[in-house]
Hints:
Elements: E1 9-18, E2 21-31, E3 36-40, H1 47-55, E4 62-67, E5 70-71, E6 82-86, H2 97-107, H3 112-125, H4 141-153, E7 159-163, H5 171-188, E8 191-196, H6 199-205, E9 208-213, E10 216-221, H7 223-228, H8 233-238, E11 243-252, E12 255-260, E13 263-267, E14 274-280, E15 286-287, E16 296-307, E17 311-318, E18 322-329, E19 342-347, E20 352-355
Parallel strand pairs: 3-8, 3-9, 6-7, 7-8
Antiparallel strand pairs: 1-2, 1-4, 4-5, 9-10, 11-12, 11-14, 12-13, 14-20, 15-19, 16-17, 16-19, 17-18
Helix pairs in contact: 2-3, 2-4, 3-4
The structure holds adenosine-5'-diphosphate and magnesium ion.
Amino acid sequence: MSGRAGHALSLQGLSKRYGSFVAVQDASLEVGSGRFLTLLGPSGSGKTTILMMIAGFVEPSEGRVLLDGRDITAVPPERREFGMVFQGYALFPHMTVAENVAFPLRVRRLGRAERDARVRATLDLVQLDQFADRRPSQLSGGQQQRVALARALVFDPALLLLDEPLSALDKKLRAELQDELKALHRRVGRTFINVTHDQEEALSLSDEIAILNAGRLVQVGAPSALYERPATRFVAGFLGRSNFVEGEAERDAGGIVLRRGGTRVLGVGEAPPGPALLSLRPEKITVLAEGEGEENVVEGRIAAWSYLGAGYAITVATADLGELKVHLPAWRIPLVPAEGMPVRLGWPRGAAVAVAEDPA
Ligand SMILES: Nc1ncnc2c1ncn2[C@@H]1O[C@H](COP(=O)(O)OP(=O)(O)O)[C@@H](O)[C@H]1O
Ligand SMILES: [Mg+2]
């Protein structure tokens, strides 16, 4: 790999319509040089369509794609010089690993000596230097994906585009390749755009996540920022799990106060006075020991519980707030749960975050 820095990508008001169907609506996004951005959303939310517009295989109905500030919307895909690893973008079965990786360099008519050197360096990068002479059928699924990564990186692309490259692998292998992909990104220092519907993958790999719902970009930010401050009900529910509490909001100095029945919940964030919604993550609620206090305290009874090894998942029925899901590490729970057992739940104000309803 050369020492060049990564490239910055900018999407400006990108839309894609198929007849009257809107696959992507008005997507704008900035990806800084050398960043790892993940497009995260459920199936059919428009992730692949956005990636294909970045790659140049799908023509936007509206909007522009810019690379380092230069408009490339009309540049054909083969002239964009982007590396790609797509689902089902298979290796050539009749070629060896080295020949597969050399292929983009042959297309670019590189001389033999430089080609061989680059192939060796790139196979080294993905730790497949021992496998250069094998054919794809002689490799595991994870090794094949590493060859695909090497083939996408060997010509020193301006961007690496990845469309669910790990989704066909089993859970353990997927976790291993996630770690490898992250290390690879660090080593090559290039801009990576990854597509996934797997929220854990997005959280663990990305510098930034862009969340898509029904063709719209709903929120973009660092993984922890999105997790801690989801903007909408959809984001809170899709990235992790959440309880939702609906009520009437009032402002106070610390954020918002939500009234529901006789209960007041202190929360953070902004909501105009009137009907409002709070997101409250199960792992931010604790079961309080006797005499223990918290900024928010609510009484209830255990409606259901299950033991998860590392902890417990408990459902608590409350009078005003309905059922609340609580996840507790085993060491933190002050009692042995049982159905019908009265408990006091507590959480800090910062755990209850005002979120907007999603647009219909
Ligand atoms: N060529 C096409 N013609 C018509 N509809 C399409 C086409 N490509 C994608 N779509 C539709 O656009 C929506 C978004 O698709 P896609 O970007 O593949 O979603 P994702 O990758 O998030 O699963 C889906 O409803 C899909 O059926
Ligand atoms: Mg897709």
